[in-house]
């Protein structure tokens, strides 16, 4: 093969290799951004969907040095065509299958050929030019790696969100097919002229510099991708970026990776040792800034740009360290590079996930810095490798990495245990309603349609009516000058004085809803409990985030208490109740009334309340399908209500009542929740803590019930049981 790097044939060859690597890496990493869609499409949990990433990475990690070694003596064009063909077929299978098991198999099989193609791409690119220019040629191929691993995520996510999972798989297929044809027609035959025996290639493992390089690459890549795996989550929960801004940030990071590849290619050809040693320190400084300025949006975009450039440079450095350590076995060395990077990615993600589950999203950086520290140590040991490395020193770091992954100290503690399919757990009489519900996807469509649906109820002639109950609206002043709050009042005809009162706060994730959505329930409570029901029409997020909704609800409660005699209510027999987000506001106004010496509440009824913003329980992280409120909708709603404070230590008990440390002195409470509700564990915990604080508590857990089941399936006996229980509890408590 001709050596001059300026020839058009060499440039075309390197371009085809770059595009091929992009297609291969895009297939591997592109699914990261569409895991919720995979879970929805194949009806599995998010943790199960994550196996589409983990299976691929693990196969690459363990086949990385083996497959390139086995194929090292074969015609490289033929091997690359074989690899691309397998990727095309596997992506087509992924596109059409309806079986999750088949999908996993279609992910695992091409993963065996990932290291074959990529390692040969590096080798061919380097051998197509002079030794001095080899880092520059490899840097161009690395552009494909960076584009596939980083840009592939937002691109595939966009395609899938606008069309479907199958269309994202089609995108992968088309890229690989184009490269297959380009390789077939424009890449010359590349027989291996000097075949190395397997034994001679394996001898590189006896060199200390190989092991130092292998360990350094594993830990540095673990640091970089350990953080990148949770970058979207960090930007949502800590920085407070919207989904659109996160996509932009990921795009910036990807472009920065490519810039870093180009810069590293030039620096490595001039001052390789200095470049390799400097990058870990630069990354450390970048990650410290990332941690310190995590809540500063503009600063974070600049930090992400810088970290992206450094991550791209680190990738080139990692490949250089291993191939430079074993120049006599380039294919095998590149295979080792791919193994170490994938192993680093898997275990780095596990360790960072452990810090998130133990300490919170913000502390993902600790895992990153620990990995980077170990990687830096071995970078410097690499350049001091003049003696044979003792066997135990070679084995122990790799053993520790494998142990961390296989014993479950990483993913097993962060990911939830597998659960049976959702349909098999829903109560039979609720299943039909669930299957007929339309998709609920706030992250894709926002709350506007639901808002319009609920707003259309206001003033509607189609609302339920009861001749025994008078219904009217009144407008009261809000907390601040000029603010007005609508209250909808339900008063039984002929009600005697000193009746009980019920202050109702509707649900809707703080995003949508009106009092009229619960008209039938309010009428029933007024008639059967014999109470005046006052329902508040509070302001909604994100236009009016915290504290606006809570201020409206508290102002309405204060008015109700002050005007109790005028509306025929005993102010000492007022209960506050609400569901979902209304349950949050119910618990919050109860806390405020206690703390501010406000209205003397007789009872509180936060039904399946949305009271915990940190997603720290199994139920809060489990995906309960796209037809009822789930964890993705929940995250969207918390971000709308609390902005960039959600999930941070700055959240107060009035924002998320689960944060309250003192629950004593609160009114007696009743709550219920279904076992398939994302608020299941949060509700259980809160009610248990109320009981521990000496508050009288009654609680009901409904097996097989999803969020707001009694509202979505009101005609079932299951839902009627819940509705009857609400009446019983209120009637018993308020009429003592």
Automatic annotation (TrEMBL):
Main subcellular location of this protein, as a coarse class: membrane
CDD domains: MFS_NepI_like
PANTHER family hit by this protein: CHLORAMPHENICOL EFFLUX PUMP RV0191, PURINE EFFLUX PUMP PBUE
Gene3D superfamilies to which the protein is assigned, alphabetical: alpha/beta hydrolase (3.40.50.1820), MFS general substrate transporter like domains (1.20.1250.20)
GO cellular component: plasma membrane
Record key words, sorted: Cell membrane, Membrane, Transmembrane, Transmembrane helix, Transport
Location of this chain's protein in the cell: Cell membrane
An example molecular function term from Gene Ontology annotations: transmembrane transporter activity
Domain of life (superkingdom): Bacteria
Membrane topology of the entry: Multi-pass membrane protein
Residues annotated as transmembrane: 12-39, 51-71, 78-106, 112-129, 141-159, 165-187, 208-231, 243-264, 276-293, 299-315, 336-357, 363-381, 393-412
Organism encoding this protein: uncultured Sporomusa sp
Major facilitator superfamily (MFS) profile domain: residues covered: 13-387
A matching Pfam family: Abhydrolase_3
Protein name in the entry: Transporter major facilitator family protein (Modular protein)
